[in-house]
Amino acid sequence: MLYAVVSGFGAALVAPLIHQSVRRWSGWLLVLLPLALFGYFASHMEQISDGEKIAFAYTWVPSLDVELAFMLDGLSLLFVLLVSGIGALIVLYGSAYLADHPQLGRFYAYLLMFMASMLGVALADNLITLFIFWELTSISSYLLIAFKHDYESSREAAKKALIVTGAGGLALLAGLILVGIEADTWTISELASRKDVIQEGGLYLPALLLILVGCFAKSAQFPFHFWLPYAMEAPTPVSAYLHSATMVKAGVYLLARLHPSLGGTDEWHAIVTGVGGLTMLIAGFIAWQHTDLKKILAYTTISALGILVFLLGIGTGLAVKGAMIFLLVHSLYKGALFMVAGSIDHETGTRDIAQLGDLAKSMPFTAVGAGLAALSMAGLPPLLGFIGKEIIYEATQEAHDLLPLVLTAAALLANIFNVAAAAMVTLKPFTGQAAHTPKHPHEAPLAMWIGPVVLGGFTLAFGVASNLLLKDFFAQTVAAVYGKPYEVKLGLWHGLNTTLVLSVVTLVAGGLLYAYLRQILPIVKPLNVGEKLGPDRLYDIGFEGILDFASLTERFFQNGHLRYYLMTIIFTLSSLLILTMTTQIDFDSIQLNVDDVLLHEYLLAGLMIAAAITITMTSSRLMAVAALGVVGYSVALLYVFYGAPDLAMTQFSIETLSVVVLVLVLYRLPKFKDFSTPRSRARDGIIAVMFGGLVTTLILIITSEPLQSRLSPYFAENSYVLAKGHNVVNVILVDFRGFDTMGEITVLGVAAIGIFALLKLRPSSRKEE
Amino acid sequence: METVLAFVIGILFAVGIYLMMRRSLVKLIIGLGVLGHAANLLIFTVGRLTRGEPPLIGKHEEVLSGTFADPLPQALILTAIVIGFGVQVFAAVLIKSAYRIVGTDDLDEMKSTDETQP
Amino acid sequence: MPSLILSTATRYLLPLMLLFSVFVLIRGHNEPGGGFIGGLVASTAYALYAISSGVEKARAALPIEPRYIIAVGLGIAVTSGMISMILGDPFMTSQWLDTVFPVIGKVGTPVMFDTGVYLVVIGVTLTIIFNLAEGE
Fold first, then answer.
1. What is the pLDDT averaged over residues B14-19?
2. Which domain covers residue C109, as residue numbers?
3. A443's torsion region: left (phi>0), alpha (psi -120 to 50) or beta?
4. d(CA A33, CA A11)
5. Could you say which of 1.10.287, 3.30.1490, 1.20.120, 3.30.70 is the CATH number of the domain covering B2-50+73-116?
6. I need a surface site. Which of A71, A82, A760, C76 has the fewest CB within 10 A?
7. What's the distance, CA B26 to chain centroid?
8. Residue A270 DSSP class
9. Strands C96-101 and A54-61, how do they pair?
10. What is the pLDDT of residues A452-488, one digit of tens each?
11. What gap in Å lies between CA A258 and CA A222, rounded to an integer?
C-alpha cells in the first residue's frame, strides 16, 4: 500500500519528462497510473464489504512514535476510489483543456502530487502521518491555484487559500497532538476504543476546537469559507478535482474519521451542526445570485460541504448514512458539472450564463453529462441524488435529541437553493435561445466530454441499482464513521410519506426560484452585507495590518546603520545580563585568584592586551592586521599551555591563512580613515568598555562557581570504549557530535560558493549571456 | 589564570565592539576578527583551564583518567575557529565587492547610495 | 612577489606538507590532529605556493578545481553517515572494520567522515584563496 501512495509522488517527478517526450499522448499515458490505482483499490472492495480492514505500518520516526501507518476500511476506500477515479478523468480532461499550455508537464506533476497526498490523507492511520499528507494537499493546492502564476489574481487567490488552510493546519496539528496525548496513542484506529478517556479528559474541548478549526478551514466552512471562491482562479480541471470533488472534502473526511472518538458530545452537536447548517444556508443563498458558472458551482460546493458537516454534526446512524451517500453524490455530480463548465468556457469563450444558451445542439455529449449531473444535484429520481436527499430529510426528521423541525427546515431551504442553482448551470446554457458567444461553440474533444458522461453514468447506475451496488460497501463505510455496525438499506421508493412531500416541495420551490429569479434578485440584493463586513474583508484588513506593522518595525530597527544594530543588540543583551546579575548573583562570592599565574602567562596576557589596544590606535592597515595576527598567535600559544594541542594547531594554520586573505583583500581597499567625530568615538568607546566590563564580570562569576559537567566525563569514559579513538576532541568532532560537524562543513561549503559568486559572477557578465 | 583571562577577554570584547561600530569597512573586518578570538577564549575559559594535560587517552588505557583539559569546549572552539574564518573571509570579500561597486568604504555613505537608487 | 628563495623552497615544501597533512589526518583519531587540521595544513601549503609562484602554477599543481573538492568531500562525509543506514542503524552510527591496517590503523566510518572534512576544508580554503589572489 505504501507503493500505492508513493507512486504518485514518483510519477509527479517524471511527469514533466514524460510529457516532453511524448507530447500529445502524455495525458493518455499518465492516466494509466490513477487507473491502475483505482483498479488496485477496487480489487479490495469485496474484502472491505465483508467487514475486513487492511492495515500496513512502516516505522518512520520510532523515537517519536510516528509510524507511516496506513489502513484501508470502508471510509478510506470510498475516498481513495473517488480520488483515483476522478483523478484519472481529470488527467485526461486536463490534457485536452490545457493542450496548448506550455507548462502542461508541470500541471501533471502538481496534479499527481496532489493525488498521492490525498490518498495519503485518506489512508493514514497515524495522526502525524495524516497531518503531513494533509499539509501536502494544501501545498499542492497552492501550486495548482497559482498555476497561471503570471496573473496577479491567481497568485493572490493561491496565497489566500494557503494562508487560510495553512493556519487551519497549524490548529489541526495542535489539536491532533492534544488528542494523541490524551489518548496515549497516535494510531487513529485505536482512538475509538479510548473514546471515554478522550472525552472525559480536560484536553477534550481545546482539542476538539482546534481540530474543528483545521477541518472547517480545509472544507471551507463559515467563517473560513471565503478562500474557496477565489480558488476558482485555478484552471477548471483543478477546480473540479481539488475544490469540489476531493481536497475540500478532506475536512469532512477527518470529521468522519474522528467522529467515533470525538463525536456525540453536546459540544460536537452544537458546533459542528451549527457551523455546517450556517454554511449550507449562507453559501446556498449566495450561489444563485451569481451568473459566473464557476462562482455558482463554488458556492454550491461550499453549501454542499456545509450539508455534509451538518449531517456529521447530527451524528445519528441515519445522518451518517446520509452524509456518506451525499458525499458520493456530490463528488460525482459536482466533478461532472465543473468539467462541463470548463468545456463550455473552453469551447465558447465565456462562462457567464447570461451569454449562453442552446448549447445542447452543438455540444450533445457534454449536455448529456451535464443533464445527468444536474438532475442528481436537483435530487430527481432515479438518480443517486434523489436517494441522498431523501436520506437527509429522514435524518433531520429523526434527530429527536436535537431540534428536528429546525434542522429539517434548514435542510429544506438549502436544497431549494441547490435546485435553483442546478437549473441555472444547465438549463440556462444548454436550452432556450441560442446566444452570441465569443467563440463559435462546438463539441469538446473526447478527453473532455468523457469525464462528465462517465460520472453522470455512475450517478444513474448507482441510483437505479443502489441496493445492489452500494449496500454492503456503504454498510462498512457508515460503520467506520458511526463507530458501530449499521444496516444500510437503499432504494428509490420509500412509500408516500413526509419525506416524499418534502422532496416535492423542494423541487417546486426551487423551480419557482429559478423561474422568478429576475424578480427576486433585486429584493435580496440589500441582504448581502458580507462583502463589507464578512470574514473575507476581515482577512484583508488583518493581512494589511500585519504588513504595515512589519514595515513599521523594519523602519525602526533596520535603519541602515550597522552600529545602531550593534547597539540594539548590546543594549538588549546587557540589560538582560544586568537584570539577572543584580537579582540573582551574590557578588561577594567572586574570587579573584591570581596566585597560580606564571610569569610567561602574564607576559602573554600583556602582549594580547597591548596588541588589542594597538589595533584601535593605529592608523596603518598593515599594522592593524599584524596586531590582529599577534592576538591570534597569542591565543594559539595559550591553547598550547592549557592542554589543547588540536586547537593550537588549528589556530596557527588559520591565523596564517587569515593574514594571507586579509592582506589580499585590504591591498585593494583604501587606507584607514576616521569618518566619525570625536564625540561619537567617545560614545562608542564608553559603550564598548562597559560591555567589555560586563563580560569580565560574567566570566568571574562563572569561574567562581564549581564546574558541573555531565557531558565531559561521559566523553572521557566512552571515547575509546564506544568510538575507538584516543583523541577525545577528534572523537567528539567526528563521532559523538558528527552531525554538527556535518552541518558545519556544509556551511563552510556554502560560504565558499558565496565567496566564489561574489568574486567571479558579475552583473555585467550576466548581461552578456 | 581564569581571573587574568577574564580581563583580557573583556578588553578583546571592548576592542572588537568598538571597531565594529566605526564607519570604516576595514575596521569592521578587523573588529570581527578580534570578536571571534574573544568569543573562543570565553568558551575556553568558562570550560576551566588545566595546564598541560591534553584530553588524550593513553596508548594502553581505555578511559581518560586523572586531570585532563575538558575536551568539550575544545571541540566547540575547533569548529568555531574554522567557521569564524569562513565568516570573516566572507565578510571581507563582501566588503571588497561592495567597495568596488559603490566606491566608498564609509558605511554611512553606503546606506545613502542604497536609498537614492530606485 | 617573485622571490627565488621562497618559490624554490615552497616547491619542495609543497609535497612534504601535503604528506604531513595526510599524516595529521590519519593519526587524528588517536593523537592531536584530524580532518580540520590536516585540511588546513594542506591548504596552507597551497596558499604559500600560490603566493610565491603564482596562482596559475598552484592551480596546475592541483589535479581538480577546488570547488569540486568541496562537493567530493561533502559527498564522502554524507556517504560515511549513510553506510550505517544501509546496515540498519540510525544515520551516522559509527561502523568499524575489525582488521587493523598498517600505518592507517583501524578503519571505520568516522575516519571516512574525517576524510570528508579534510577535503571540504581544502576545497573551501583554496576556492577562497585562489579566487581572491586572481583578483579582478
1. 93
2. 4-134
3. beta
4. 8
5. 1.10.287
6. A760
7. 16
8. I
9. unpaired
10. 999 999 989 988 888 878 888 888 888 888 888 888 8
11. 20
Instruction: Using the structure block, give the residue that is written with the C-alpha cell 578545481.
Output: C65
Nearest-CB residue to A730 (from C29, C67, C124): C29
**Looking at chain C, which residue has its C-alpha nearest residue B71?**
C32
Q: Average pLDDT for residues C121-134, to the nearest whole number?
A: 89
Question: What is the ipTM metric for this complex?
Answer: 0.91
What cell does C32 get?
Answer: 592531536
Contact A133, A125 (CB under 8 A): no
Cell 518595525 found at: A553
What number is the average pLDDT over the span A153-181? 91
Cell of A427: 438549463
How many structural domains comprise chain C? 1
Give me A537's grid cell: 474583508
Answer yes or no: are the C-beta atoms of A141 and A181 closer than 8 Å: no
- Note whether A262 and A361 are within 8 A (CB): no
Place of cell 500496513: A56
Q: Which of A645, A650, A741 sits opposite C40 (nearest CB)?
A: A650
Distances (CA, A) of B77 to A416, A661, A725, A732, C110: 74, 21, 19, 12, 20
Q: Mutate which of A651, A653, A764 to test chain C, going by most C C-beta atoms within 10 A?
A: A653
- Map out the domains of chain A with their CATH numbers: 313-527 (no CATH), 559-711 (1.20.120.1200), 712-769 (no CATH)
Q: State the residue for C-alpha cell 476510489.
A: A81
Residues in C closer than 8 angstroms to A737, CB to CB, are none
pLDDT (tens digit per residue) in A633-671? 999 999 999 988 899 999 999 998 888 888 888 777 777
C-alpha cell at B44: 575556553
Evaluate whether A395 touches A404 at the Cβ level (below 8 Å).
Answer: no
Residue A766, Cβ density class (10 Å: 0-12 exposed, 13-18 middle, ≥19 buried): exposed
